[in-house]
Amino acid sequence: MNSALVTNYPVTDRVREAMAVSLRGVEELLPQEDWLKKLSRAEATGQPLRIKLGLDPTAPDIHIGHTVVLNKMRQLQDLGHTVIFLIGDFTTLIGDPSGRNSTRPPLSAEQIQQNAETYKTQAYKVLDPARTELRYNSEWSDQLGARGMIQLAAKYTVARMMERNDFHDRFKAGTPISVHEFLYPLMQGYDSVALRSDIELGGTDQKFNLLMGRHLQVEYGQEPQCILTMPLLEGLDGVEKMSKSKNNYIGITEDPNTMFAKVLSISDELMWRWYTLLSFKSMADIDALRQEIAQGRNPKDAKVMLAKEITARFHSAAAAEAAEQDFINRSKGGVPDDIPLVSLSGAPLGIGAVLKSAGLAPSTSEAGRLIDGGGVRVDSSVISDKGLKLQAGTYVVQVGKRKFAKVELTA
Questions:
Q1: Which residues does the annotation place in the binding site?
Q2: How far, in Å, CA of 184 to CA of 173, rounded?
Q3: Which residues, 6+ apart, have CB-to-CB distance to 205 below 8 Å?
Q4: Which helix (DSSP H) or strand (DSSP E) does residue 140 occupy?
Q5: Cβ(188)–Cβ(212) below 8 Å
Q6: CB 262 within 8 A of CB 236
Q7: Where is this motif: 'KMSKS' region (predicted)?
Q8: Strand ranges of the sheet holding 376-378, from the earlier edge strand across to the other edge
């Protein structure tokens, strides 16, 4: 596809710095030469570029893996460009088929609106609300009507649509593909036309849809957007992508103490990956810190800094400081101040039943495994006897480093 860009503005040091910020941690930036031209033009004319990110509110909450692309938006926002946070309330009615092997059931309008409000609140923990253009794609999609939808569909072929991996694989496997699913990438692409975006961001699974926007802008006589894809963030295990189903995630609404402790639990190697994708520190500062670690500074110092930065972003600086102190207290065998109080009856009660009833273990068999692993303490003493029965009284029961309960046990 030929670019409509014919600019010859100078590539200044500021433009090179902006390009370096743009490329930080990215998977792909296409075409790079077009983006350099756009940055040069913006620097020379003072006209900010339009940065688009669209999210479908399909779930009520997000984890920090979802914020990787929001962080990139914030970096570009801090360069002075216009950030458009687009909530796909219309496209959610269709359901994004990206990476799926079956048709996604659509959500109700009420569910979409509720989730959209939550997404907006969570996104503003990363983006600057005062410099963010919040839009909903129902603004222009509802107005298209049947005639406009047919005209839009005429701008792309079925053959090109079937080049998309998930459609190709489902067709080959004989798995049904609904006609309305073809409308999804067309509508996402049309969003770029409506917003006249200069660049669209997304995850690696969105590449086809992002390129669709570029194609349709040319069809409508606009300068085509560039596309920028961000990698999927590895979760706490450092292997699988962050996912709630894999329980290797940090939810951005988790309490500060849990968030801080989870960041500290990641490996030293993964820490640098997270610094690149999640931190707002400059790469120069990160490289300097990495050099200090290589010269003998304790890696834990860098991890604590990262944990405090992430915790402060989603809570506050004071909450991050308190979470650090809470972690120090726990590591010294101290008990946090805010542990839940659980009242149980039936003393003497077996330790397995106590752990299950207090919500510290999902089952008595899992409680037994935790005891075998040396992960259970009662009043700071490690428990090794799975047959232990607790008499009536009050106990501080601990599982691992982060789970506590104050148990009041009666007969």
A1: 244
A2: 21
A3: 98, 99
A4: helix 138-153
A5: yes
A6: yes
A7: 241-245
A8: 341-345, 403-410, 393-399, 376-378, 381-382
Residue type for position 211 = L
Which residues define the annotated binding site for ATP?
244
Each residue's pLDDT tens digit, 191-235: 999 999 999 999 888 899 999 999 999 999 999 999 999 998 999
- pLDDT band for 100, please (50, 70, 90 cuts): low
Block residue for tokens 């402790």: 261
Q: Is the dihedral of CA 295, 299, 305, 309 positive or negative?
A: positive
List, for residues 114-166, the tens digit of each pLDDT value.
Answer: 888 888 888 999 999 999 999 999 999 999 999 999 999 999 988 889 988 88
Instruction: Enumerate domains of the chain plus CATH numbers.
Output: 13-230 (3.40.50.620), 256-331 (1.10.240), 341-410 (3.10.290.10)
In one letter, which amino acid is 319?
A
Cα radius of gyration rounded to whole Å, the chain: 26
Single-letter amino acid, residue 149:
M
56-81 pLDDT tens trace = 887 766 789 989 999 999 999 999 99
Are 226 and 35 in contact, with CB atoms under 8 Å apart?
A: yes
Picking from 321, 308, 323, 313, the residue whose alpha carbon sits closest to that of residue 124 is 313
Q: Go through 146-179 and write b for each residue having 16 or more CB atoms within 10 A of its CB, e for each that does not.
A: eeeeeebeebbeeeebeebebbeebeeeeeebee
Structure tokens at 20: 């370096």
Q: Is 11 helix (H, G, I), strand (E, B) or coil?
A: coil
- The amino acid present at 53, given as its one-letter code, is L
Q: What is the pTM of this model?
A: 0.76
